Amino acid sequence: MARVLIVGAGLTGSLCAALLRKEAPRPVHLAVWDEAGDSGGRMSTARSPYNPQSTVDLGAQYITCTSHYAKHHQSFYDDLLALGILKPLTAPIEGMVMKEGDCNFMAPQGISSIIKHYLKESGADVCFRHCVTQINLRNDKWEVSKETGPPEQFDIVVLTMPVPQILQLQGDIANLISECQRRQLESVSYSSRYALGLFYEAGTKIDVPWAGQYITSNPCIRFISIDNKKRNIESSEIGPSLVVHTTVPFGVTHLDHHTEDAEELIFQQLEAILPGLPRPVATRCQKWRYSQRKCMTGSCKTAISGSEKMPESTILWSIHVEGRPETHSHGMKPLGNKTAFSASNGYV
């Protein structure tokens, strides 16, 4: 039985695992590794240490089904809606730009519930705190080393982490990327920002007429969401939760600062926007070094796609192109549109 490792437990990795389990022509052993302590990647959900029912989405805020994705990938949305993992986003989001044919959805149990669903469907062995450092070819197998513990061998490795992290990997993988492929990978750039989640005691009132708001006049804050209100959750037993996403300039300026220092600056700006906001009982500040892909040149696409035949030992990497994950490999054609569906961050 072939052993397949998927590095990254975000949307791309979890969906890839589920589709491999469903469509692989023969049984495979699937493993998913992630350097974080939980699944989600840039679709992560944080929980209050005092009440796990109080949550905030620290990454993507909602899912957007465009007319293009509805045409090609409607089954993904239908399945998630039927299971109650997604529901229509009906709460008011001030400043949201809606294009004709777009539909927006929210996740009642948090945006990471989508990833957890696909990981469960895959039946993969999921391991956290596994930070991959190098990949070498040993006797027609890929030997994958991590920061702690012995290396393990796999027949196929799928890399779904941000491109700069792929380029930092040591070992034989560096020699497998052609000059053209490396130029294309190096042309990928990302925006950076912070997300700050705030959790409040039950009974706390945050009196605003919206569930989310895009901010255009603040140098620090780009988006605010009353997360429980976004999900239509009103309960006397669960305190409200609020999440703030910063602007890219703020994220870039404070990228190498201590998270605690950035958190205090964000809270000061939030108080200026929402005067009288009470102090939360708990916070969670997330630094997104690789928030959203900004650009990638397409001059080497044919070279990256590779041949039609998968070799016995294959290594793949994932690049987000125009909002959807496309998986390409060294010596393999792309897996195609079946691996894609559209996720939307709550800011532009």
Structure write-up:
It is built from ten helices and 22 strands. It has helices at residues 11-23, 67-82, 112-122, 163-167, 173-176, 179-186, 227-230, 248-253, 259-273, 301-305, and strands spanning 2-7, 28-34, 45-47, 55-57, 63-65, 87-88, 93-94, 103-106, 125-128, 132-138, 141-146, 152-154, 156-159, 189-190, 193-199, 212-214, 221-226, 241-246, 282-288, 293-295, 314-321, 324-329. Residues 297-312 and 318-348 have low confidence and may be disordered. It is globular and about 65 Å long. It comes from Ursus maritimus (Polar bear). GO terms for molecular function: oxidoreductase activity, acting on NAD(P)H. Residues 1-17 form the signal peptide. Residues 339-348 have a biased composition (Polar residues).
- Strand order within the widest beta sheet: 9-2-1-13-21-22
Q: What is the overall pLDDT average? A: 86
C-alpha-based Rg, rounded: 21 Å
Distance linking N and C termini: 44 Å
Quickly give the structural class.
alpha+beta
Q: How would you classify the quaternary structure?
A: single chain
Count of alpha/pi helices = 10
Instruction: Please summarize the sheet with the most strands.
Output: 6 strands, mixed
- Estimate the strand proportion: 25-35%
Percent of residues in helices: 25-40%
General form: globular
In the predicted model, the low-confidence regions spanning at least 5 consecutive residues are: 297-312, 318-348
- Strand tally: 22
Protein name: Renalase isoform X2
Region (Disordered): 326-348
Organism: Ursus maritimus
InterPro entries: Amino_oxidase, FAD/NAD-bd_sf, RNLS
